[in-house]
Specification:
This protein is mainly alpha-helical and about 160 residues long. Helices cover about 70% and strands about 0% of the residues.
């Protein structure tokens, strides 16, 4: 339907519906918004963590104190700190899961943001379960390799 000014009538008059917006969204776009939300939660959590001295000054991880082994998250905090000060390689050595997540997040969220802004030729990345499996794989490999190295180093003493 056209109005006198020649514009599409039913297109302009449609009121915004949160329900339709939410349920009409593709899975990939939902993951985009979820990613944005997670980043906000993470940044808020990090800000709180850095400002509570007894929490950030806790020193060695509890798991390592008890078992003598690294936990899967050991090195994560240092990796985030290194990344925030621009040391990508250092961050990768401390905990490769951290830069992996950040790079994936930047590429994924960036591609969707560009699509939302109608940048020609850019399509939001498709979400694949494989991205999560790669992440879990990195987490496990890092954990196993670090503990093997710990044994090797301890064996040398
Ligand atoms: Zn730990």
């Amino acid at each position: 339907m056209k109005n006198p000014s020649g514009q599409d009538n039913d297109h302009n008059k449609k009121p915004f519906s949160l329900r339709e917006w939410l349920f009409g969204m593709s899975v990939d776009r939902k993951v985009f918004w979820l990613g944005l939300l997670l980043a906000i939660v993470f940044i808020a959590g990090w800000a709180v963590y850095c400002n509570i001295p007894w929490l950030s000054g806790m020193g060695e991880c509890r798991f390592k104190q008890v078992t003598g082994l690294y936990c899967p998250g050991c090195g994560g905090t240092r990796a985030v700190r290194a990344l925030l000060s621009g040391h990508i390689i250092k961050s990768f050595i401390y905990h490769p899961f951290v830069p992996y997540c950040v790079i994936m997040w930047l590429v994924y969220e960036g591609s969707h943001l560009l699509e939302i802004l109608h940048v020609p030729g850019v399509k939001g990345m498709k979400f694949r379960e494989a991205y999560a499996y790669v992440g879990i794989g990195i987490l496990l490999c890092n954990w196993i390799i670090k503990n093997i190295m710990l044994f090797v180093i301890n064996g040398l003493h």
